[in-house]
Prior knowledge:
By secondary structure, the chain is mostly helical. Helix content is 66%, strand content 2%. It is built from 15 helices and 2 strands. A two-stranded antiparallel sheet has the order 1-2. Helix 3 runs antiparallel to helix 4 and helix 11 runs antiparallel to helix 12.
Amino acid sequence: MLAIAAVLVLAGCATKGGYNQPPPAAVQAAQEQTPEQDDRAMYLSLIHRMQDEGAYFASLAHIDAYRQRFSGSAELDLLQADALRNTDKPAEASTLYHALTKGPQAGPAWHGLGLIAAAQGQYAESATLLGKAVAMDPLNVDYLGDLGFARLRAGQVAEAREPLAKAAELAPANQKAVANLALYTMLSGDGARAEAMIQKAGLSQAARDEIYRLSMSLKRASSSTTPAGGVRAAAAAPSTVDGIAAPPSMLERFGDRSDAHQENPR
Length: 266
């Protein structure tokens, strides 16, 4: 959601017949021949698929039906919280997320809370919450990318470097991760290097335009806010932010190999 969401996130489409029925007849017949545990798993899978395709209101209806049939679970509570967050009910979603932060769903719960804070423009708070999600699941590329992007939006440009570099190295084919790293590099003053990353990743023109738009917007916000306000402006020196260069391994992978070795990161 956080990283160039309007351009890079592909919205799923509902199936032709909608979501007004439980699993199809063939699946239902198979369910009748399986233990209740398999029945639960199959219904949860259906709800997951609805949310993957953006049918959050339909998923809420099926969550209610699932509770009537099987009772609740932490996984179901998380699905409900995600659906509420995506249907403009942040307060109700937050209540559920907070209740999940002490259990096995703590990582996605902190992530959900971080996304709610970001949607409300509270980027510093969002970064704090997303940092807790990353602490629970350090290899989650989405968490790392969202944390880095929230830090960029909060003006914490130098602090955004590590999670964005981790995300891009963990998933070099992930265009969202590359777009985030390119945005960081652009904010650090090296537009040519960012453009090389964009071209090598094959990002669309729309994604490129959004990266440049965000870069200009964040630079304007940074320059109009004093340090006392809690936002640091991006450093003017090329290739660095607060003296920190982009990681050489990422420059070699996504940037111009001819000069990547010249960088001297700390």
